[in-house]
């Protein structure tokens, strides 16, 4: 529990610090010790050592004090996710405290919304939240997928399985659409490429903008589902109870996603993130083959997966470059140049509509072989 004694500055990873400074959140960095102390008091938790590999927020280990109330009446916060109303969370329960960088885009609101919608199914369970403070208390999971040393194909199987658990109708939840995200990416790529001194080829940028425009035009509210928005190997963690099982994919809850961006979009968006990752392996292997395999695995459209991957690869490469996250930024932009060159090579292209060669989609939001269509968004 916190005391009135002066607190030392909170340790932040260089990436989080740079992102906070870029967002004009220097005061947030300075006020972090006070913010953490207030949450320790209000939520009856003890905050421990921060995670040094965080990239989007201050993230630290936490432990609940005995008899923490679970009825959502805590000061400044609310409870979500599985604990009976009027009950309590056991003392000594391990958890994770996450404090979002204050910046435009309602990132904290969107993440909290996704975690409430999923209720621990596919995503980490939300224990408490405080939107004004950008704070979340989450169940503590195991190691990230990246640290398990699994072959890339095995990682892709786990990523697909984790993403599919999230996909579900969620019309009217207030999250941005895939079309809105596509338009934002167009603006971001155009501005950031110039600001950074054009760190990749103009051809790569033009290709990404064209792909983004096609995905915006293809958006369909009736087909849109809840998507995580950032499905990669650092955002998939071992779930409690299965942390010692290499074959945890076959066990219920074997892996869960963290750090959702939250969109109502075509499910292919999430697999575009999988296309974005492992850029060096993408250039050394069969790039189009990866998109086709992901499409077959999840019963989705290979062209849409490919095009979202093109857009995300350029935007994320530019973002990594802007915050000094290297060599990831250089590798993604090199892969973007490589993929842009493939776009003018007809061999192996997607112009023959490969989705028609795939089996009929069998998606987790379908029942009895028929798609469960969500009502059109009223936003």
Q: Output the structural class.
A: alpha+beta
Beta-strand level of the residues, as a percent range?
5-15%
How many β strands by DSSP? 14
Biggest sheet details: 6 strands, antiparallel
Mean pLDDT: 84
The N- and C-terminal alpha carbons lie at a distance of 43 Å
Description:
- 40% of the residues lie in helices and 14% in strands.
- The chain is of the alpha+beta class.
- It has two domains: 14-139, 2-Layer Sandwich (Phosphorylase Kinase, domain 1); 145-370, Aminoglycoside 3'-phosphotransferase, Chain: A, domain 2 (Alpha-Beta Complex), CATH 3.90.1200.
- It has a six-stranded antiparallel beta sheet, sandwiched between helices. Strands 3-5 form a two-stranded antiparallel ribbon.
- α7 (268-276) packs antiparallel against α9, α7 (268-276) packs across α10 (302-322) and α10 runs antiparallel to α11 (328-342).
List keywords for this structure.
Phosphorylase Kinase, domain 1; 2 domains; 14 strands; 379 residues; alpha+beta; two-stranded antiparallel ribbon; six-stranded antiparallel sheet; Aminoglycoside 3'-phosphotransferase, Chain: A, domain 2; disordered C terminus; globular; 11 helices
Short description:
The protein is α+β, with helices and mostly antiparallel strands and 379 residues long. The chain has eleven helices and 14 strands.
List the helices and strands and how they pair.
Blueprint: H1 14-22, H2 26-43, E1 45-50, E2 57-64, E3 68-69, E4 78-79, E5 88-89, E6 94-100, H3 107-118, E7 126-130, E8 135-139, H4 152-166, H5 178-195, H6 202-218, E9 225-227, E10 236-238, E11 255-257, E12 263-265, H7 268-276, H8 279-284, H9 287-298, H10 302-322, H11 328-342, E13 366-367, E14 370-371
Antiparallel strand pairs: 1-2, 2-6, 3-5, 4-7, 6-8, 7-8, 9-12, 10-11, 13-14
Helix pairs in contact: 5-6, 5-10, 6-10, 6-11, 7-9, 7-10, 9-10, 10-11
